[in-house]
Amino acid sequence: MNQKLFSLEGKVALVTGGNSGLGRAMAIGLKAAGAKVNVTGRNPEKNESISKEIGDTEAVHLLDVRNEEDIEKTITNVVKKFGQLDILINNAGYVGIGSVLDLPLEDWNAVIGTHLTGSFLCARNAAKIMADRGNGGKIINIGSMYSIFGLSYITSYVSAKTGVLGLTRSLAVELAANNIQVNAILPGWHWTEMTKVMKDTPRDDEIRRKTPAGRWGTAEDLIGTAVFLSSSASDFVTGVSIPVDGGYSIAESLLYD
Q1: What SS3 class is residue 240?
Q2: Whole-angstrom distance, CA of residue 112 vs CA of residue 94
Q3: Cross-strand pairs, 183
């Protein structure tokens, strides 16, 4: 097998929400595969931490992906420094919890704006750079198992992540003419700062028992898929959504005692 298929040498990547959790792991993974990695985040302390890990303070950008003007400035700065942009991973997001019966519109808009509109705005601006340069590119949208399931009390999140699938397919069809592949990763249950509160709870055990792999995922479990979809190994793969969930989404019931 030609290992260069998976090399990201000479590529420039931007990972939104890349200062912690799943985004951080993917950013570090792309760097290990040879890419020059930029990340964005809204938390200055986390931004400072990731800048030390990737070894470049100028490659970490304070950004709220709901602000198109700031997105344009960020991508312009990336291109000014590195001369190009080849890979975009739309990972920024958060979960709003509350009953649909009294969910404030501003809370709905904040979640939809971050996950769905933010992904659209980043993709549109990145795709312009990729199309103008003429060398193609890769856009990876981060969905969720709740792109395909429903769940109470996170209606805005489920709606946004379901919308990410439609966005991925539509972008893939339109941007194929520019040799830009657009795909989605659907993470399952992975241990992160957000999910650690579930450790050693009945829900923790239930998730493990429903996952055919028999365990929770780690943030690092996403790296292989992210590198594949960022590399030339996936040049004929577009518009697909890949669950990285240990089989959670295909299991009908609890599998382990």
Answers
A1: coil
A2: 10
A3: 140
Q: Which residue in the list 146, 157, 248, 256 is annotated as catalytic?
A: 157
25: tokens are 């792991």
The helices-and-strands tally (H runs, E runs) of the chain is 8, 9
248 belongs to the catalytic site: no
Distance, in Å, from the CA atom of 71 to the CA atom of 26, rounded to the nearest integer, reads 20
Q: Which amino acid is at 231?
A: S
Per-residue pLDDT of 185-237, as tens digits, reads 999 999 988 888 889 899 999 999 999 999 999 999 999 999 999 999 999 99
Tell me how far apart the alpha carbons of residues 241 and 100 are, in angstroms, rounded to a whole number. 27
Strands 217-218 and 190-191: parallel
CB proximity list for 228: less than 8 A, separation 6 or greater? 6, 234
Dihedral through CA 41, CA 44, CA 50, CA 52, nearest 10?
150
Domain boundaries of the chain, sorted by first residue: 3-250
Distance CA 219, CA 8 (A): 20
pLDDT digits (tens, 9 = 90+) for 35-67: 999 999 999 999 999 999 998 999 999 999 999
Q: Indicate if the pLDDT at residue 256 is higher than 80.
A: no
3-250, superfamily in CATH?
Answer: NAD(P)-binding Rossmann-like Domain (3.40.50.720)
Question: CA 19, CA 12: separation in Å to the nearest integer?
Answer: 17
- Strands lying side by side in the sheet with 241-244: 60-62, 36-41, 12-15, 87-90, 137-142, 180-187, 241-244
